[in-house]
Design goal:
- By secondary structure, the protein is α/β, with parallel strands linked by helices.
- It has 15 helices and 9 strands.
- It has a 9-stranded mixed sheet with strand order 6-5-4-3-2-1-7-8-9.
- It is globular, with a radius of gyration of 21 Å.
Length: about 375
């Protein structure tokens, strides 16, 4: 990118004035100059409502019971204090990580809290516990339902303990609730996790998604952690792969594009676990590279701390040795979203007693680990 192009890009960002643009320009510039700091605040923050989940997906560390971190729920007060600290510079917040976000009973209030402070918020869900009125109340910008098939049987091959019927019911209720609220800025996405057992359902999924009136239909390329899972779940049609096909034939699992001592994302984003521990990105589900605790130390002390700088230095000099990067093809740069205030006011929403009890029971079972262990991957 030429000096003129860079200058023009900065000028356009300044005119658009999205929240966090000075940080984005500064941090991206330091990444390109191969400097590890000092950085300004990250424009993108991902925070984990919980690392517990009901779905028992057999590729996920949470689902297959290989989560080494203690399970728990994000504390509402700690979250609100954190949002107060970051709201002046954070452009977008991903309210999601290694669990089902709506198992946290404070999810809608938490999302609303960030939205009232001008932060763009999105999340993903398996759909089982979504409360349509709660979503509208939260003023969330984007909600993605991630489904595993077009029939209950195919859905449960991967979403083992999830219910397609429940997810559909909650999705249809949300579409109807949004229709009643034309002033809502909610964007509804439906994702289809395409795998070997359901790839024949993709055309049906796309037709259905268009018929029901969602905003985005997303055919999600699957991710796996090892060769056994690859044989079991990767589609036969390799247009859905982001893994190197030739390497796979040799028994090696690696992405088609391998980052080469470069990752601008790490300069502009941070992942916060439910207990406040910060890790470099979403490729660290077990918290093996904790940079510090943002609830105790504050975001900037962690983001510019010795451990964060050392991790960025390793990215620049020896990325190939970092376990988090082994199966990652890179995330590029965060998208800066124009300021979108919560466009309308809703009186505090309280879920029905039945839904509240169902969420509380499911959260308790998922956190305590009383749900049945999922089956291991098997080749079919």
């Amino acid at each position: 990118m030429s000096v003129w192009t860079k200058t023009r890009t900065i000028y356009r960002l300044a005119r658009a004035n999205p929240r966090g643009w000075p940080s984005f320009v500064w941090n991206t510039g330091l990444a390109q100059m191969r400097r590890v700091g000092p950085l300004m605040a990250p424009v993108h923050v991902s925070i984990e409502p919980t690392n517990a989940c009901n779905a028992r997906c057999p590729v996920c560390e949470t689902g297959k019971d290989e989560m080494h971190r203690r399970k728990g729920l994000l504390d509402k007060q700690a979250y609100e204090q954190f949002v107060d600290d970051i709201c002046g510079t954070t452009n977008s917040l991903m309210y999601y990580f290694m669990g089902e976000p709506f198992l946290n009973k404070h999810a809608y209030d938490m999302i609303r809290y960030a939205r009232e402070r001008g932060i763009y918020v999105e999340t993903c869900t398996n759909g089982d516990f979504v409360d349509a009125k709660g979503v509208i109340y939260s003023a969330i910008n984007k909600l993605s339902f991630q489904l595993g098939g077009m029939t209950e049987a195919s859905h449960r091959r991967y979403r083992v303990a999830s219910s397609l019927e429940k997810a559909h019911k909650n999705l249809y209720e949300l579409i109807e609730e949004r229709r009643k609220r034309p002033e809502s800025n909610l964007q509804i996405e439906v994702g289809f996790i395409v795998m070997r057992h359901n790839e024949h359902e993709v055309p049906e999924f796309l037709r259905w998604a268009e018929e029901i009136g969602v905003d985005i239909a997303n055919v999600v390329d699957p991710c796996v952690r090892n060769m056994l899972e690859g044989y079991a779940y990767l589609p036969k049609d390799r247009k859905y792969w982001y893994y190197d096909e030739a390497a796979f034939e040799q028994g090696i699992l690696k992405p088609k594009v391998v980052p080469d001592n470069d990752c601008v994302w790490i300069w502009n984003s941070i992942q916060v676990n439910w207990n406040g521990d910060a890790v470099p990105c979403c490729r660290d589900p077990n918290g093996l590279h904790v940079l510090g605790n943002v609830f105790e130390e504050g975001l900037m002390r962690v983001f510019n701390g010795a451990r964060a700088r050392e991790f960025r230095r390793r990215i620049l000099t020896d990325q190939g040795s970092i376990d988090l990067c082994r199966l990652c093809s890179g995330y590029g740069m965060p998208t800066l979203v124009k300021r979108q205030p919560a466009s309308f006011s809703v009186v505090h929403h309280t879920a029905s007693e039945e839904k509240s009890l169902a969420v509380a029971q499911a959260a308790d079972e998922a956190v305590s680990g009383r749900l049945s262990r999922p089956p291991k991957a098997e080749i079919r």
